[in-house]
Amino acid sequence: MKIFTAQQIRDADAYTIMHTPISSIDLMEKAAMACTNWICKNYGEQLPVYIFCGMGNNGGDGLAITRLLLNRGYQAKAIILHHSPNASADHTTNYQALRHRYPDSIHHVHEIKDLPPVPENALIADAIFGTGLSRPAEGWMADAIEQLSHYYDQHTVIAIDIPSGLMADASSAHMPVIKAHHTLSFEFYKLAFLLPENAALTGEVHILSIGLLPDYIAQTPARYQVTEATHIHDIYRPRKPFSHKGTFGHALLIAGSEGKMGAAVLSAKACLHTGAGLLTCHVPRCGYDIIQISVPSAMCLTDEQKDHSSVFHNNVATPEAASRYKVIGIGPGLGTAAGTAWALEKLLEHYHSPMVLDADALNILGASPHLLRKVPQQSLLTPHPKEFERLFGKTANDIERLELLSEKARALQLNILLKGRYTAMAFPDGSVWFNATGNAGMAKGGSGDVLTGILTSLLAQGYAPKEAMLMGVYLHGLAGDYAAAECSQEAMTAEDIIRLLGKVFLELRKYA
């Protein structure tokens, strides 16, 4: 799914109006009907609904929703905030329609003292400012937004299209924004919905279709996209009957240190459960028995050090040795001992194919930034926000961090993801994708180690680096969703994600 800018969304509306018999007021009615249907499906008519409307088209949506709810027997009231002397044409049309049929359902607000009290059991719908907002709310409207935000703790708040005060394409940090439990938006995710700094403002986002023409969507480029199941179906390559283990690659996983061998085990199991043909694990001597017992399908090489690894570069120090492995994954539970850091540098000097670098491998790079230039191009880096900060520095807000992510991916020719609810993936070609699978139950130790194993496995099987990242993050999140459904977000563990990878692949096979 493409993520369009606020201007592109307006253009999509205009394109649909121009190329179909539908008018702008009819398109607004479709949006209002979609919201009304959602409200009626989720909340009974015994609850009064207070809809706060601005003077633009977002307010026009709110007025139409008020009328449609009243038609269905709901107790609905439109509170119009006159933040501008002029209303949009479609706002005026819907205002006249509402006033004609339900004149007592409208309350006008010209200053903060005019805001009416809201009953304790009421639903609140926010339709004040839409995506047209280009600057922070000011004056009494800023105070009104601040006051309405206090309803969040006592009422269910539903934002229409976007929470008022939130910028669709820019950072809204430190701006007055109405907090919503649910956001009902149309056709596309907005960039603002995918940023961690806005999570507490948007609540759960619901994308409702209003029938915008697919021609415009298909032919209009977008810098950002959200991975959908259809993308993964196109990437996935089912196994052919005469395949053998060599067909699916030999991966080397360098992981583990004393007290952190669990990370190596999780990553190794995930690598095998994702389909790698062969797996060799390089671990310190303390991990030999652990790997051999926990992951018997894997081969095991041990370092000369007992509690950490320091000479793993010997496994790939010559062209002959390097040719054994289709890919190297490194980092889970590795530790950051001086010997390990030295060995990573030597590895980067000898191995020139795309790698997967995670966890302590990234922490070593963060402590020695000059090593970033030695990472093979097209490698996959998988930092969480703190690791990203150590690698590339601090930013003032999520928009700046997203720009930095994209800039580094292009400059270094690396595939870099930034873990989060909507993991962002930046690629050397300049594109940025977000992943929507996954849930808060995955916010546990070991989940990242599982992802490293998945990505390493996909590269070993011959998937291109961009394909491996898009598919790997999606599969990881979907297995997490299956685990949450089966075990609950609280009780699920990283092992459950691995266990349910098979269910994910069975689902993929249906569309192969």
TrEMBL record:
Binding-site residues, K(+): 58, 126, 164
Signal sequence interval, chain numbering: none
Cofactor annotation comment: Binds 1 potassium ion per subunit.
Domain YjeF N-terminal: 9-218
The protein's role, per its UniProt record: Catalyzes the epimerization of the S- and R-forms of NAD(P)HX, a damaged form of NAD(P)H that is a result of enzymatic or heat-dependent hydration. This is a prerequisite for the S-specific NAD(P)H-hydrate dehydratase to allow the repair of both epimers of NAD(P)HX.
PROSITE patterns assigned: YJEF_C_2, YJEF_C_3, YJEF_N
HAMAP family assigned to the protein according to its UniProt record, in alphabetical order: NADHX_dehydratase, NADHX_epimerase
UniProt KW keywords: ATP-binding, Isomerase, Lyase, Metal-binding, Multifunctional enzyme, NAD, NADP, Nucleotide-binding, Potassium
NCBIfam families noted in UniProt: yjeF_cterm, yjeF_nterm
Name of encoding gene: nnrE
Pfam families listed in its UniProt record: Carb_kinase, YjeF_N
Gene3D superfamilies: 3.40.1190.20, YjeF N-terminal domain
PANTHER family: ATP-DEPENDENT (S)-NAD(P)H-HYDRATE DEHYDRATASE, ATP-DEPENDENT (S)-NAD(P)H-HYDRATE DEHYDRATASE FAMILY MEMBER
GO-annotated biological processes: metabolite repair; nicotinamide nucleotide metabolic process
UniProt-recorded name of the protein: Bifunctional NAD(P)H-hydrate repair enzyme
Enzyme Commission number(s) of this protein: 4.2.1.136, 5.1.99.6
Domain spans labelled YjeF C-terminal: 228-508
Catalytic activity: (6S)-NADPHX + ADP = AMP + phosphate + NADPH + H(+); (6R)-NADHX = (6S)-NADHX; (6R)-NADPHX = (6S)-NADPHX; (6S)-NADHX + ADP = AMP + phosphate + NADH + H(+)
Subunit architecture: Homotetramer.
Residues at which AMP binds: 419-423, 448
Required cofactor(s): Mg(2+); K(+)
Family: In the N-terminal section; belongs to the NnrE/AIBP family.
Molecular function as annotated in GO: ADP-dependent NAD(P)H-hydrate dehydratase activity; ATP binding; metal ion binding; NAD(P)HX epimerase activity
Binding annotation for (6S)-NADPHX: 57-61, 130-136, 161, 263, 333, 384, 449
